[in-house]
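Homework help board

Subject: predicted structure for assignment chain

Our instructor gave us this sequence and asked us to write out the predicted structure in token form, then describe one feature. I got the tokens but I'm not sure how to describe them. Can anyone check?
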Amino acid sequence: MFKSLKGKLVASFTAVVLILCLGVSLISMKMTIKHLTEHTYSELQQIAALEAKYIRASQDAEIRYVEALAKSEIILDESVPWEEKVAYFEEEAQRTGFVEFCFTDGNGESTTYSMGQEKCNIKDREYFQKALSGQGAMSDLLIGRNTGKPEFFYAAPVKKDGEIVGVFYGKKNATALSEVASNIQYGETGFGFIVDNNGRVVGSSDEALVTEQFNFIEAAAEDKELQSLADLIQNRMSKRETGSGEYTYQGKERLVGFAPIEESPWIMVVGIEKEEALQ
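My token output:
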């Protein structure tokens, strides 16, 4: 009888110990997962903030370059043959990664520095208006009026005798920001992309998303798999806050950090697949 009672007590005690050990293990596992997740969020957020500052600095450099070109005497010098002006600015464009350069008068009538002298009116464009007021400017990703393709524009005022008489601007391909996103390296599954406040992709290693003007928020209306990312963009990123979050894409959970790119409508996003982050 005593042996039977003793056996029951040992069994009960063993069961309690096992349950306690299991509980401790589960708590420890949850704490580890929480720690790894928070650590990953912190690193991703820091990387996104650094990349955002880099992009801001690079865009400022592009504006300063166009401002310097806008001071070229060749722009307003009527004694310089058109062919010579075209050759000069085409060489500059090829050297610096621009598609082409243009001059616009005070009424917004634009002429491209090319032998075809393509023309259009850009008086309603924000970058033109800002440059005409005396400031260097850059645009969001816009559809070019001569090309019909998405492009970035960088503009600066052109002055004569101290007075603004027009605007000089250059165009860059839609994929100009994609190089930054493509160079993001974080673990094996790390990635980066850039969206604007409306959820449109303006920089990605998948350049088709940029050239096709892919919008995560709009696409989520038909593809529910994109809903968690669309919500993150709409509820957090577009508020211009630096932060982190999680979403599911192509069947995989992803952790991301994000930061706004100052003086632009863009947000830098850096992420990694959750499975790798928790290894």
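Reply (TA_rk): Your tokens look well-formed. For the description, you could write something like this. The radius of gyration is 28 Å. That's the kind of observation they're looking for.
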